[in-house]
Amino acid sequence: MDKKALRIATYFLTAAMIGGVGAAGVLFINRDKEDVTETSEVATIERGTYASQVITNPINATTESATTTVENVTTTEEETTTEEETTVTESVVVRIYDQSGDYTGKQTGWFADVVKDKFGMEIEFVDAGAGIAAAMEAGEDISEFADIVIFSDPDNNEAFNTYAKNGTFLPLASDEVELWAFYGETSKYGSVDPADLTTGWYLRWDLFNGLEDKNLSNLDAYNYALAQMRPAENTYVLSLYNDESNSYLGGIDDYLMTEFGVEINGFGIYNPETDEYLNMFASGSVYREALIDLWSLNVNGLLDPESSTQTYEQALEKLKNGQVISTLSSKMAADYNASVEGSQMLPVTVGETKNLIRGINTDTKETGWSIVASSEYALKCEEFLNWLMTDEGAMTCFYGPKDVFWYVDDDYNHYLTENGLAAVTDKSVSMEDYGYEGTFADGFFRTSGTLVNIYSHTANEKEAYDYTTWKSYALSNGRASADWTEFTGALSEYDLFTNVQDNVLLDYDRSVEIPVDDEESYKRLESVIADYSWKCIFSADATEFEQNWRALNGASGSSGYSRYYNYCLEFYEESEEETEPDETTEPEETVEGGETSESEEGGTTVDENAQTEENITSEEQISAE
Description:
It contains 21 helices and 24 strands. It is globular, with a radius of gyration of 29 Å. Helix 7 packs across helix 8. By secondary structure, the chain is an alpha+beta fold.
């Protein structure tokens, strides 16, 4: 299994353990109520029903609305006491210390009201880091500081690992593995913003949907479809840009990411599928192939001739005013959809291509939510954390009060109400009309993360928690076309990229650095590569393309390409060793600058064999490539 697949598999395994990806139940603490540190078997409840049911603790501490029956509970208000039990008529205050959080004080707003009604509990975030650390170091009780402690990265957290087993925290048991925390994710509230998806084959759906032939089996078929879609001769199918919005190569880098699933990284090409760092000018380089493809669009009158001189904003304006009918940028498509009525830029799958998307991060960092064993409200904390890991609890954290802002039908399709949609798209919406104080944003659970990842699936596995992936959202208010859904088999852009397409490469964590003490020199090299690359794209014919390609090789070599590439390659190899210390691999052979190599005197010579191996002899041949 490659590293990417392993990383994704690990993510889903972890999510399943916490009930985030279709788990049958959630962890419960099951122990004798006379000894809160005794560990026994785990009880579970079925998730995904969304019923307004009472969640009953295995030790018979039952929470129902604002009335809770527990033993030995101290409350903030008047209590009615019997010999065996205490009936709470008002709420208790549970204190949370969040190691990565930046909020202190009482939880306010709608979430506070929901929790008070359901658990008879108020939440206070405490700034007790120094006190807890000192108490832990001294081996003292920390219940005077907090009832729940949220640790950052518990696996590598010294405090958590040192004190988890000394009786400080309430123990859990799952499949004979002892745990001292509910494991959650550091994914804050949010949804998959289409603008963050990086790249894709986005086109004007209203124009494409009118075509009889919608064959997109390969890149040639896609370009043919775009050519047939043009409403006028002076309309272009693609407009790139030449500024450093994301790379010194501007829109050329977008093309590499969309067609080949690779990205310019420093002075080489990083391929996350193979985890290789490649020379831009080596024989058979995808960089040359990308320039040929863009050249072909240009000589056929389909590429905006101002692509090499315009900015990102200028290219976006042409997209909006109808001069251009497709884009590779997810952000451009999102801007278009937000500002142009009656038309949408939607992504499609193009066969035989790979698409690199950086906006979907499958690597989530865990948090550990531990209950202080000596807390007088330990049982209530347990019920509360269990609820947060149910579908109802997670959905409430993300979208507000159930039935007011969201609901689910009998087939487990999720819906935002009209008011819910208004709130999640504009979090400054006032909650006073719904009986709560403050704005929607004011009421969010003020932790640094959530126990359930918003990108994971609900218990029945039908839909993810993220509302932008729901069928109801995709087909409502013109946000996605029913025809597009039928054509692609996807309910949203996120769904297309993560579930439907099999040619998408998701986020990666590899990067390289270049020397910072020689900025003028490497900036000059960047300029040389960019300038000659655009010359290749806008060559008048195949012969001129070949001349410019050779000039690009020579000029980049003279500007020190091999030195900078080897520096980046060395950095990449060192970072790879750091991330995989247990793996023994043969060192990768250093490539001497691909098409060029440096002499001992510091000059450059051109590798003629590499240059002539793929010579273009005619426009027909280059088009065929």
